Amino acid sequence: MDIIKRRKYPITLRVIYSLTLFSICYITLVRPVRVYINQNYIAPFYLSLDKTENSSVTLTTRRINIQPDGYNSPRGFGIPFGGYFWLPFSLLIAARQKWPAIGLMGYHVFLGILPPYLAFLFIKQVAWAGTGLKVNETLFQGVFLISVFWGIKTILVQWKKEKNI
After folding, report:
1. Which helix (H) or strand (E) holds 153?
2. Cα-flanking dihedrals φ and ψ of residue 80, to 5°?
3. Coil, helix or strand at residue 126
4. Which helix (H) or strand (E) holds 68?
5. Among 38, 94, 97, 143, which residue's CB has the most CB atoms within a 10 Å radius?
6. What does the pLDDT read at residue 24?
7. In whole angstroms, what is the distance from residue 89 CA to residue 95 CA?
8. Domain for residue 26, yes or no?
9. What is the DSSP string of 1-62?
């Protein structure tokens, strides 16, 4: 029985292809879909809640910010699967790190559920939900940085192995 071997491309070529492919995919497909979903489904829902409660909801194309009375800074959430997903995801795919890439995807699915619910609670004057949104922002940036560094480290290790350094 023949063994089917995957053709091995150099890591530098895989990184360039991965970054290029996922950038084009994000700019042409994902970003417009994210903006459409936010402007036509998510934002109107939170704006309707804003009219019934004592809070100020501000919108960008990819983010919802809520600032109830008595808070100095707004709390909110971004629509998942943005640039903070695609950059580390493309690095992990180029490095052939399947499970970390799946974990990152699962985390962004989680971001599509919990932060919108916390924002709903925050508009309804549940104080701890605002703290949850702040913690989510910090955790989100931490997961992004760890994912990027993990991807870069793995790529460098593979590159050194190819170059026998």
Report:
1. helix 127-163
2. -65, 170
3. coil
4. strand 63-68
5. 94
6. 96
7. 10
8. yes
9. -PPP-PPPPPHHHHHHHHHHHHHHHIIIIIHHHHHHHIIIIIHHHHHHHHHHTTEEEEE-SS
